[in-house]
Amino acid sequence: MTKNRQQQAELDALRKQLNTAVRRKDYEAAAQACRDIIALDARAKGLNIMVCLYHKDLGEAYLKLLEYEKAHESFKTAHAGLVEYRATHKLKYPEDWLNELTVIERLIDKVERVHLKDKF
């Protein structure tokens, strides 16, 4: 099996692991799967993983685990990554990813207002 196919198979297995963990509400396993996918992206740039979406999933898992600072950091990273993606890639429609950005902005606001209100 070629290196690219091995990496793709690893990504598919990690995505399946993430989906299973979320369905079972095992947020520690979901967070680990997201961290593994982000690490895989660093090793295998050729897979073109939209890592910002996994930062959002990681933030949601941290939120469920009551790790608010980590959740906030993950949401900020996801937002910055998605803004950069929209700026550097040709989009079929100008409004692509705007809904996802809005969701991330709401999550950031919620964490800042409710959970980290003393810090902001």
Layout of secondary structure:
Elements: H1 3-23, H2 27-43, H3 51-64, H4 68-88, H5 98-115
Helix pairs in contact: 1-2, 2-3, 3-4, 4-5
CATH structural fold name: Serine Threonine Protein Phosphatase 5, Tetratricopeptide repeat
Q: Indicate the proportion of strand residues.
A: under 5%
End-to-end distance: 50 Å
Q: Point out poorly predicted stretches.
A: none
Find the structural class using helix and strand composition. mainly alpha
DSSP E strands, number = 0
Annotated CATH homologous superfamily = Tetratricopeptide repeat domain
Give the integer mean of the pLDDT values: 93
State the shape.
globular
Helical element count? 5
Radius of gyration: 15 Å
CATH architecture grouping: Alpha Horseshoe
The SSE string, one letter per element, is HHHHH
Helix proportion of residues, in percent?
over 70%
- Main pleated sheet: none
CATH class: Mainly Alpha
- What is the domain tally? 1
